[in-house]
Design brief:
There is one protein chain. It is built from nine helices and 14 strands. It is α/β, with parallel strands linked by helices. The protein folds into two domains: 138 residues, NAD(P)-binding Rossmann-like Domain (Rossmann fold); 190 residues, Dihydrodipicolinate Reductase, domain 2 (2-Layer Sandwich), CATH 3.30.360. The strands form three sheets. It has a six-stranded parallel beta sheet, sandwiched between helices. It has a six-stranded mixed beta sheet with strand order 10-9-11-14-13-12. Strands 3-4 form a two-stranded antiparallel sheet. Helix 1 crosses helix 9, helix 4 packs parallel to helix 6 and helix 4 crosses helix 9. The longest helix has 17 residues. It is globular. 45% of the residues are buried.
Length: 345
């Protein structure tokens, strides 16, 4: 008989939290009891889950007593305070914020890539950045077969990565453009930055604030997280992260250099057998990944694979995935499933 677990969801009303709830139901995660935790402001409000109505409780340290798995998606400041408290009370925390990702004591995990790192956890496991997840999921089988020395990625990221409010702002801006009204921008490229720009009919080459080296925090996340997940500190990685007027589904143009010479067909063959990857690459029929078709799908889609014209060991790939699913909620639930299968829960 499958072990029944007590699960807590912190931030269930957000874009990622609601998807976590959907995935728990869809994947039939063995829930004995479930509780939904939020700020005092939201405590007492009803929330629907799997046909039943629950009452949101205030997220306090004591609320995690008896919890086996705590899924966090309520912002880094909340995780910083409450994740250690939950772990202290025996819960395994799977945190979807960036707060713990680069902590050397915290595993940063994509199950298809570095599942073995789960055994090293000390109560908290970090879910990687959405753009990092889909990229390493596609690149790991290539790295394992041919080696990997360099990664250059440009992302085309959907507004849902910035939350429900960014989705609503895109819709409002689009409607105002069409109606000839003034267009307001209050959220993108970064809520805490000095200036904001419309995303409707636009492309913004900034996600998150800039660091001192000219890269944004989002770009540095991709660079550092990729090296940590792949256990490859020597890997050369560079990223340019761009926000586009798409609701859901991140796209990435990725250039890689491998150690062993291979061919496009060699890359095809590896990806055909890779877990969680769907190869969509047939230029004769214009078959390639697009976010409009990836939305709501669990897989990471890869296509437009080409050998570089100047470097036999260089290849270009196009990678697309639903950023709220494999890029966030689904990966979190897969971490919990892997831990259950590996007797870590």
């Amino acid at each position: 008989m499958t072990k029944q677990l007590t699960v807590a969801v912190v931030g269930a009303t957000g874009a990622v939290g609601s998807k976590m709830m959907e995935q728990l139901i869809k994947r039939k995660f063995p829930i004995g009891q479930i509780k939904f935790l939020a700020s005092a402001r939201s405590a007492g409000k009803p929330i629907e889950f799997n046909g039943e109505t629950y009452t949101i409780e205030e997220a306090t340290p004591e609320a995690f007593e008896g919890v086996n798995v705590a899924l966090f998606s309520a912002g880094g400041s909340v995780s910083a305070v409450l994740a250690p408290e939950a772990a202290k009370r025996g819960a395994v925390v799977i945190d979807n914020t960036s707060h713990f990702r680069m902590d050397p004591e915290v595993p940063l995990v994509v199950p298809e890539v570095n599942r073995g790192d789960l055994a090293k956890h000390k109560g908290i496991i970090a879910n990687p950045n959405c753009s990092t997840i889909q990229m390493v999921a596609a690149l790991e089988p290539i790295r394992a077969t041919f080696g990997l020395t360099k990664v250059l990625v440009s992302t085309y990221q959907a507004v849902s990565g910035a939350g429900i409010s960014a989705i609503e702002e895109l819709k409002a801006q689009s409607a105002n453009w069409d109606a000839g009204k003034d267009v307001e921008a209050n959220i993108l490229p970064s809520g805490g930055d000095k200036r904001h720009f419309p995303i409707a009919r636009n492309v913004i080459p900034q996600i998150d604030k800039f660091t001192d080296n000219g890269f944004t925090y989002e770009e540095m996340k991709m660079i550092n997280e990729t090296k940590k997940i792949m256990h490859a500190p020597e890997l050369k990685v560079a990223a340019t992260c761009v926000r586009v007027p798409v609701v859901s589904g991140h796209s990435e143009s990725v250039y890689i250099e491998v150690e062993k010479e291979t061919s496009v067909e060699g890359i095809f063959e590896v990806l055909r057998h890779a877990p969680g990857i769907v190869l969509q690459d047939d230029i004769a029929t214009q078959t390639y990944p697009m976010p409009i078709y990836a939305e709501g799908e669990d897989a990471t889609f890869v296509g437009r694979i080409r050998q570089d014209l100047d470097n036999k060991k260089g290849f270009h790939l196009w990678i697309v995935s639903d950023n709220l699913l494999k890029g966030a909620a689904l990966n979190s639930i897969q971490i919990a499933e892997a831990m259950l299968e590996d007797n870590l829960l």
